[in-house]
Design goal:
Elements lengths: L33 H10 L13 E10 L18 E10 L14 E9 L2 E8 L12 H8 L10 H10 L4 H8 L13 E2 L4 E4 L5 E10 L8 H10 L3 H11 L5 E9 L1 H6 L19 E10 L4 H6 L12 E2 L4 H17 L77 H10 L2 H15 L7 H15 L1 H10 L6 H4 L4
Antiparallel strand pairs: 1-2, 1-9, 2-3, 3-4, 5-7, 6-7, 6-10, 7-8, 8-9
Helix pairs in contact: 3-12, 4-10, 11-13, 12-13
């Protein structure tokens, strides 16, 4: 086999890759050594900005196959018949840690999916939890700051976290999940995934329903205890990535079953809680799980940086027949995610292999950093024009609907929607076993013992009030293990 010539980026072959050009064997390096310049200049630019959240992660390609008919709910071509399939890409991640942090840290896990469909790429950008800490995107920067590092010391702070959570009882549902063993999953294969938000589906008759997406692991749920997670963080901080890659390379392809919950617009009007509130779930008894299909991951990307690090997901990447809802967190993400990708990867991030729709892309976007003209060449960059054959298809018109109100204001997100305690209480009493509750309390106490400073007692007492309103037993056990004297006002804290 003929050997390949070593070349520069312009294709010019060169020989001296190991030794710089110098004045004599011990002399200074010459500025004219452009090979040295090119290699060093590229090297210092080999990283793109780290994701603010979800920095540490892994990914894999796979296949999604439709196993059950849901065409009564959506006109999306992917779901038009049983047996339809498409290639897909999944990225799993921790949320708060940096790129080099441990996979087993106590944290929610990102569960981002990209489906390459004939009607465009569909991104379902979720987590391994069905709820979230806050219900309005305006609060997101503040919340994330509390999960990061103190400006002065650059250290993580239990005080910041619990101070924020104690001021925002809407976070309680997610906090209880985070502090349970579900906050330290055994890798990525043994956890469920959720779209979390309420989305909509529109069918061929232009009828709309509200939906939630669930991906149930076929490997079974498996979690670390807190002690096991801490131990593994020291032994193998890349445990989850290694576990996923090894499983796929060994042919043990991980699988998840996709389900949806469906709520009609009439049911939404009478639902006990705001159906678009991401801090709440829909009970399965009221809105049963409807099986849709199966996701299988079967291919490790050939290059981590190109495929996993440069992958870009956005809830705004929707396909005909699937749309958004008035969920305030979702509405904020529709803008912020693509904006993050334009900053982090560039305005042409969608042209990279992992993000590119493999089917037709016809638009008038041109130029910008790293623009690739192979798609559009010299075609017009304006519409309408007399030269190309691109025509808007009326079959893809947006769903038209009336809003409940035309009054614009900054509405209090919790007005008439301040029940932050019923669902966390049911999670504690109904969904958790005795062992789950024991671990939950131990993890809460271990974390809250890290609260320090002059506001320590105030923060702890405020959070204890929330625990008592959730469940008396929960509040008592946390208070007892923190050696807090119980004030009757904590247990009788009124709304």
């Amino acid at each position: 086999m003929d050997s390949k010539k070593l070349t520069l980026s312009n294709g010019a072959p060169y020989f001296e890759h190991q030794d710089s050009q110098t004045v004599g064997p011990r002399g200074p390096v010459l500025l004219q050594d452009f090979i040295l310049q090119e290699n060093l200049a590229h090297f210092v630019r080999e990283r793109i900005p780290e994701r603010i959240v979800h920095a540490k992660g892994t990914g894999a390609y796979g296949t999604f196959t439709v196993t059950h008919d849901i065409s009564q709910y959506t006109k999306a071509k992917l779901f038009s018949k049983i047996g339809n399939s498409c290639r897909m890409f999944a990225r799993f991640s921790t949320v708060g840690g940096e790129k080099g942090s441990a996979d087993t840290a106590r944290d929610p896990r990102g569960f981002a999916l990209k489906f390459y469909t004939e009607d465009g790429n569909w991104d379902l950008v979720g987590n391994n939890t069905p709820v979230f800490f806050i219900k309005d995107a305006k609060k997101f920067p503040d919340f994330i700051h509390t999960q990061k590092r103190v400006p002065k010391t650059n250290l993580k702070s239990a005080t910041m976290m619990w101070d924020f959570w104690s001021h925002n009882p809407e976070s309680l549902h997610q906090v209880l999940i985070l502090m349970s063993d579900r906050g330290t999953p055994y890798g990525y294969r043994h956890m469920h995934g959720f779209g979390s938000h309420t989305f909509s589906m529109i069918n061929a008759q232009n009828e709309r329903v509200w939906v939630k997406f669930h991906f149930i692991t076929k490997q079974g749920i498996k979690n670390f205890t807190d002690a096991e997670a801490v131990k593994m963080a020291g032994e193998n901080p890349d445990f989850a990535q290694e576990d996923l890659c090894n499983a796929i390379e060994n042919g043990d392809f991980p699988k998840w079953t996709m389900y949806i919950q469906v709520m009609t617009e009439e049911q939404a009007k009478d639902f006990r809680w705001n159906p678009f509130d991401i801090t709440k779930v829909w009970f399965h008894d009221d809105f049963p799980m409807i099986e849709v299909g199966e996701m299988e991951l079967n291919e490790v990307p050939v290059n981590y940086f190109a495929h996993v690090e440069q992958s870009a997901f956005s809830p705004s990447s929707l396909i005909n027949g699937i749309s958004f809802s008035p969920d305030k967190m979702l509405q904020g993400r529709l803008f912020s995610y693509p904006d993050a990708h334009r900053y982090r990867v560039g305005v042409n991030a969608h042209q990279l292999e992992v993000n590119r729709c493999p089917f037709a892309v016809n638009n008038y976007q041109r130029d910008g950093f790293m623009a690739d003209s192979s798609q559009y060449q010299d075609k017009p960059n304006y519409f309408p024009n007399s030269f190309d054959e691109i025509k808007p298809d009326p079959a893809y018109k947006n769903y038209e609907y009336e809003l409940d109100s035309a009054h614009v204001a900054n509405y209090n997100r919790n007005e008439n929607d301040d029940d932050h305690y019923t669902q966390p209480g049911l999670l504690y009493t109904k969904a958790m076993t005795a062992e789950d509750r024991e671990h939950l309390i131990s993890n809460i106490v271990g974390s809250m013992r890290g609260i320090t400073g002059p506001k320590k007692d105030e923060i702890i007492n405020r959070q204890l009030c929330h625990f008592f309103r959730t469940n008396i037993e929960l509040g008592m056990k946390v208070a007892s293990q923190l050696n807090i004297n119980i004030d009757a006002n904590m247990m009788n804290h009124s709304k």
